[in-house]
Each structure stands twice: as structure tokens, then as C-alpha cells.
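FAQ: What does the model actually see?

It sees only this:
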Amino acid sequence: MTTQLFDLRKTSGNKNIASAVYRDFRQGAVIGALVICQLSFRSKMPFTRFVETGRVAKCAVGKYKGRLVCIVNVIDQNRVLIDGPTSGVPRQQYAVNHLHLTKFRVRFPHTARTRIVRDALEKFDLKKKFEETRWNERSVAKGRRFNMTDFDRFKLRLARRERNRIVSAQYKKMKKQVVSNGMLFGKPRKGTKPLPSKRVKSPEDAKKKKKKKKALPGKKAAAPAKKK
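And it is asked to produce this:
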């Protein structure tokens, strides 16, 4: 578009009109670029885990699966140079597709030596910070499930059954109480009134009920036996 307007300014008979169009176009392009830059700085980036120097990642495939490493250098779009002095992973090239990037990033120079990487990781206290994440809790639970025996799975099934029984009983109790109070999901239902509280039966009431009990109709009471 710029080239066409520039050619129009040189070849057109009315140079004043062509110059005005070209000047307006340049001003509009500059203003548009400034607006885009301002919007880009104001808005936050939705993705923050980049393949970069210092990014902490977790190996997903191979001999060192599950260990934390640090990216030291980016070889190309498919390979990186990793180093894990605190997790026992030697410096080597690794495929990007076989890494799980974390939210942590350690600051050290580009292509730093292993000694510098180790000092940076120890100062960052990576192991403690990663243990506090939800990711580590899920991985530990997954490892426990993987190492369970048949008897462990049997005990887990019984424990879940007992838990569900307790939860269901409590839920029914709470639901009954809510319905009797005219409430549903914490909100009063229209056209309903709370029911009167039920009277708790006492042992004295049971005794009175037994005394008032009479014989069934149509049958005579048995006469007392005579003594010989």
C-alpha cells in the first residue's frame, strides 16, 4: 500500500493531492502503531511459561523421568540444553516435546556453567517451592496409586464405601431438616411455611399409651380361671 501511494505521488499529475494522501496515510499508520503498543503493554500476557534460559522444567520421558531440570540454552525450536545439578541430571540436549514447563524461572547468565546453575537453584530453594505446589501433590498421589497392591486397593474400596455411607446419611439428614424449615438450597420456597417442630416422645408417654389400650371390638375378655 505504501509503495502504491509513493508511486502515485511520483506519477500523478496533481502532486499536491498525492502528497496529501501519502502524508495522511503515514500519520494514520504511526497513530495505529502507537495505539497497538499501548494496548499490548496494558494487557497482560495470557501465557507466561516460555522455553527460555533459566526456565525450570520436569522431564517426562526417558531415564530421568520425573526429575526437575533447568534450561541453560536453546539449541533450536525442537531441542534445548538442560542441566539438573540438584536432581542428578547431567548436562545434555533434550527434546522440547519431552519437557513439562513449570511456573518457576531461575536467573543466571546465558549458557552458565554447572556450578553457577547449582548455586542459583540452591539460592532459589527450588525443591521446597515445588513441594508446596498442587502439581507435586498430584504426582505423589499418582505414584502411590501406581505402587498399590491388590490388598491396598481392597482396603481403599472399603474406605470409600464407608465414607459414602456417612456422607449420604448426613446429606439426607440435612435435606430433611431443610425441607421441614421451608428452605431449599438456602433460599425460602414460595408458598411454603415452616412445619411445627415434632414433639419428642418420652418413656412416660409410652406407659400411658399401654394403660389406655383396650380389647379389640367383637371379642370378649377371657374370664379368670376358677380354682379347684
